[in-house]
Write a structure and sequence with these properties.
- The chain has 417 residues and is an alpha/beta fold.
- The chain has a single domain (31-345, 391-415), classed as TIM Barrel (Alpha-Beta Barrel), CATH 3.20.20.150.
- Helix content is 42%, strand content 11%.
- It contains 14 helices and ten strands.
- The chain has helices spanning 5-15, 20-28, 69-80, 114-123, 150-174, 196-210, 240-250, 267-274, 301-312, 332-351, 355-363, 367-376, 382-392, 401-411; strands at 32-35, 88-92, 126-130, 178-182, 187-188, 219-224, 235-236, 253-257, 281-285, 319-323.
- Strands 3-2-1-10-9-8-6-4 form an eight-stranded parallel beta sheet. It has a two-stranded antiparallel ribbon with strand order 5-7.
- Helix 9 (301-312) links the parallel strand 9 and strand 10.
- Helix 1 crosses helix 13, helix 2 packs across helix 10 and helix 5 packs parallel to helix 6.
- The relative contact order is 0.15.
- Zinc ion is lined by residues 183, 224, 257, 284, 324.
């Protein structure tokens, strides 16, 4: 048989004891949940509402953002064609199919998401879900589930319960559990006098949201922690310690967002630490830059470290991988393609690691050998294995995906005034 870049790579990896075919088979079994909100700068399809006070800021004015549910689906459909493998879609509650109606967030139900479920089924996608605790008059003060007003808290509690029920119905219909992730913006710009009461109120609100029993075969509950946000620099109610403790106590999923920590902190160390104590994890694969937590994911050391940890620790079966970033300054479909392809690439290179050999060096105390090998394997022909995966998955190989994006921009996006 003629040798190709792939067969050459296969032999190079085999020489290190790594089976590239086995790595490709495992890779194909790991879905990535694409975040719908990259497509329209976290806009959603409710009549009113902006991001003010939410700590979320989508900056840039690249033309062609999706303005309707049909446009968003069309754009997502284009993005999935550029990404190898079978994946998922992560929806926010504000992206319902409201048909021009004003429906209160505490009154939404599966009716507003049935068209998404049908669309996802047709494309073979699983769905994940998020209650939306921002871009709403009842969130304008920057407080929701921890608000001092019991009426406002109750409204948001009802929203949380409604979303868990919607998530369960999505999961039931699609035959794969929906992860419903709860993130709230609650916090203060400046130093609070009372750090305790908002956290007590949040804990009580969460207890109320999670009180209705929902079958975990259909819906899994996750809670997302954060260090600080824009406008909540001094105090975030849902801090790391708060949610870690809550998730451990209630055996919920903890959501670790890669951009929600101090810049010198990274996820790899947290993944295995937290998985000692919670059943499963949700990852928001993102990239922090200075004070912003949501840049397009790069193929960098942090991303590689995350995927290495999932493979080395054998955590893939207990980890749900989602993306979370939004860049309005570049083509939004390219943003999805770049970040998602990077996440898959990083997982592939982690699956191609000769981990057993590295571990033997480490356990034998040979740290010189460990360091030398870790650096040497960076030169293995990983790109040929990645290209082969794209080829077999019928998606563009190498940078060819960008040609498709440019053609789509010309034919579709540029027509959106
Ligand atoms: C915000 C959180 C949250 C949001 C999405 C839109 O800091 O990361 O996950 O980005 O819910
Ligand atoms: Zn996040």
């Amino acid at each position: 048989m003629a040798s190709t870049p792939y067969t050459f790579a296969q032999e190079s990896y085999a020489a290190q004891g790594v089976d590239t075919e086995a790595a490709l088979r495992r890779l194909a079994g790991v879905p990535i949940s694409l975040h719908c909100w990259q497509g329209d700068d976290v806009g959603g399809f409710e009549a009113a509402g902006d991001l003010a006070g939410s700590g979320l800021a989508a900056t840039g004015n690249y033309p062609g953002k999706a303005r309707t549910i049909d446009e968003l689906r069309q754009d997502l459909g284009q993005a999935y064609k550029l990404i190898p493998g079978k994946h998922r879609l992560n929806l926010h509650a504000s992206y319902g199919d409201f048909g021009g109606q004003k429906i209160e967030r505490n009154a939404i139900g599966v009716a507003q998401f049935q068209s998404w479920i049908d669309w996802a089924r047709a494309l073979g996608l699983g769905l994940d879900f998020n209650p939306t605790y921002f871009a709403h008059p009842k969130a304008a003060s920057g407080l929701t589930l921890s608000h001092p007003d019991a009426g406002i808290r109750q409204y948001w509690i009802e929203h949380g319960i409604a979303c868990r029920r919607i998530g369960a119905e999505m999961g039931r219909q699609l035959g794969s559990p929906t992860v419903t992730n709860l993130w709230i913006p609650d916090g203060y710009k400046d130093n609070p006098v009372d750090r305790k009461a908002p956290r007590e109120r949040l804990a009580a609100s969460l207890d109320a949201i999670f009180a209705p029993a929902i079958d975990p075969r259909h819906n899994l509950d996750a809670v997302e922690c954060k260090l600080f946000g824009i406008g909540s620099e001094s105090y975030v109610v849902g801090s790391h310690e708060f949610y870690l403790g809550y998730a451990v106590k209630k055996q919920k999923l903890l959501c670790l967002d890669a951009g929600h920590f101090h810049p010198t902190e990274t996820l790899p160390d947290k993944i295995c630490s937290v998985l000692q104590h919670v059943p499963e994890l949700l990852l928001h694969v993102s990239r922090g830059v200075r004070w912003d937590s949501d840049h397009v994911v790069l193929f960098d050391d942090h991303l590689r470290g995350i995927m290495e940890e999932l493979v080395r620790g054998d955590f893939l079966g207990r980890t749900h991988i989602g993306l979370d970033y939004f860049d309005a300054s570049i083509n939004r479909i390219a943003a999805w393609a770049i970040g998602t392809r990077n996440a898959i690439k990083a997982l592939l290179i982690a699956l191609l690691e000769p981990t057993a050999q590295l571990r033997a060096l480490e356990n034998g105390g040979d740290f010189t050998g460990r360091l030398a090998m870790l650096e040497e394997i960076k030169g293995l022909p990983f790109g040929a294995v990645w290209d082969e995966y794209c080829r077999r998955s019928n998606v563009p190989v190498g940078g060819a995906w960008l040609d498709d994006v440019r053609a789509y921009e010309k034919a579709v996006l540029s027509k959106r005034a």
